[in-house]
C-alpha cells in the first residue's frame, strides 16, 4: 500500500531538541508529513493519532510512540492513505526505534537518516536536555490553538520560528507547542472556560441541530479534561442524533487543535428553539 513512500528518519537522544527542529529537517527534504510520538502531522496540523506525551507512564509512552496498539496503528495508516502521503519523516531516539515504527506502519525501509548532531551543536543539545530535566518541558511540532489562553501547567508556551517553504520562497512563521507530559506533571492545569466555549461555538454553527451554547464548564484532573455544555436545540431535527454529532465534533476539534486528551464531553439540551 505504501511502497512508493519515501521514508526519512530524524534520530537523537531524548530531550536533545528533535521535535523543535523537526519541521526544519522535514522542509530541507521537501517532506510535509511527520511522525512524532504517536502523532501524524501534516505541516503545522495534527491529522491523526494521540500524543504519546499524554500517556500516564513512560512504558505507555513507548508503546504509543511505536504504534504497538492495532487500533492506533490503523488510524495512522488510514490517514496516510487518505492524505496520499508521498514522503514522511519519522522521529525517534535510535535507529532501531525509527525502523520499528516504519515496520509497524507498513512503510518501506528508511531512505535516509538525519541525526540531531547533524543539525544542532553540543551546546544547543545540552541546553535542551537541561530544560527537559529541570522543567519537564517537551515540544511537539504543531501550534497551539489560535485563541488567547490561560495555562499554568500542561500546555505551556508557544514557540514561533521562521520556516522556509523552499528555495526562492519567502519564509513564514511556524508555531510549536511546549508541553509537560502527564508522567512529569508539575502542578494543576487550569484554563478559562471561554477558550473551549469558543471552540464549541464554532462547531455549534456547523451543526444544524444546535441553536446556541448556553453554558460551558471545563475541568482537568491530570489525565485529561472533561467538558460540560448546556445547549439550545432546534425544533424539527433529530435531537439525540444531533447532540451526539455535536459531541463528537467537539472532542475531535479539541484534540486536533490542542493535542490534549479529552476524557469526556457531556452535552445537555436545555431548551428548544422554534425556527
Strand percentage lies at 25-35%
Helix content: 25-40%
Largest sheet composition: 6 strands, mixed
- What's the number of helices? 8
Give, in order, the helices and strands. EHEEEHHEHEHHEEEHEEHE
Number of structural domains: 2
Give me the side-by-side strand order of the main sheet.
Answer: 4-3-2-5-1-6
Shape: elongated
Tell me the distance between the termini. Answer: 49 Å
Radius of gyration: 20 Å
Tally of DSSP β-strands:
12
Low-confidence stretches: 143-167, 170-190
Care to describe what's here?
It contains eight helices and twelve strands. The termini are far apart. Helix 7 packs across helix 8. The longest helix is centred in the C-terminal third of the chain and has 20 residues. It has 275 residues and is α/β, with parallel strands linked by helices. About 17% of the residues have low confidence. It has two domains: 179 residues, no CATH class; 81 residues, Alpha-Beta Plaits, CATH 3.30.70.1350. It has a six-stranded mixed beta sheet, with helices on both faces. The chain has a three-stranded antiparallel beta sheet with strand order 7-9-8, covered by helices on one side.
Question: In summary, what is this structure?
Answer:
With 275 residues, the chain is an alpha/beta fold. The chain folds into two domains: 6-184, no CATH class; 193-273, Cation efflux protein, cytoplasmic domain (Alpha-Beta Plaits, 2-Layer Sandwich). It contains eight helices and twelve strands.
Amino acid at each position: 500500500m505504501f511502497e512508493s513512500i519515501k521514508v526519512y528518519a530524524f534520530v537523537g537522544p531524548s530531550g536533545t531538541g528533535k521535535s523543535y527542529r523537526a519541521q526544519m529537517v522535514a522542509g530541507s527534504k521537501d517532506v510535509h508529513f511527520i511522525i512524532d510520538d504517536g502523532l501524524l502531522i501534516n505541516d503545522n496540523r495534527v491529522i491523526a493519532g494521540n500524543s504519546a506525551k499524554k500517556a500516564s507512564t513512560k512504558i505507555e509512552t513507548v508503546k504509543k510512540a511505536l504504534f504497538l496498539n492495532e487500533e492506533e496503528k490503523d488510524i495512522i495508516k488510514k490517514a496516510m492513505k487518505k492524505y496520499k502521503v508521498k514522503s514522511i519523516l519519522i522521529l525517534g531516539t535510535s535507529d532501531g526505534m525509527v525502523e520499528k515504527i516504519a515496520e509497524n506502519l507498513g512503510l518501506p525501509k528508511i531512505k535516509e537518516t538525519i541525526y540531531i548532531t547533524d543539525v544542532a551543536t553540543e551546546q544547543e543539545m545540552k541546553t535542551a536536555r537541561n530544560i527537559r530535566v529541570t522543567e519537564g518541558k517537551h515540544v511537539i511540532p504543531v501550534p497551539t490553538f489560535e485563541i488567547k489562553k490561560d495555562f499554568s501547567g500542561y500546555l505551556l508556551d508557544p514557540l514561533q520560528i521562521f520556516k522556509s517553504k523552499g528555495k526562492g520562497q519567502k519564509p513564514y512563521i511556524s508555531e510549536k507547542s511546549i508541553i509537560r507530559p502527564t508522567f512529569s506533571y508539575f502542578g494543576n492545569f487550569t484554563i478559562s472556560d471561554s477558550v473551549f466555549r469558543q471552540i464549541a461555538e464554532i462547531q455549534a454553527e456547523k451543526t444544524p441541530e444546535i441553536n446556541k451554547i448556553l453554558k460551558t464548564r471545563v475541568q482537568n484532573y491530570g489525565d485529561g479534561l472533561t467538558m460540560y455544555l448546556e445547549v439550545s436545540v432546534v425544533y424539527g431535527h433529530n435531537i439525540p442524533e444531533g447532540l451526539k454529532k455535536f459531541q463528537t465534533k467537539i472532542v475531535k476539534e479539541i484534540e486536533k487543535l490542542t493535542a490534549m486528551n479529552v476524557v469526556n464531553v457531556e452535552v445537555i439540551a436545555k431548551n428548544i428553539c422554534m425556527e
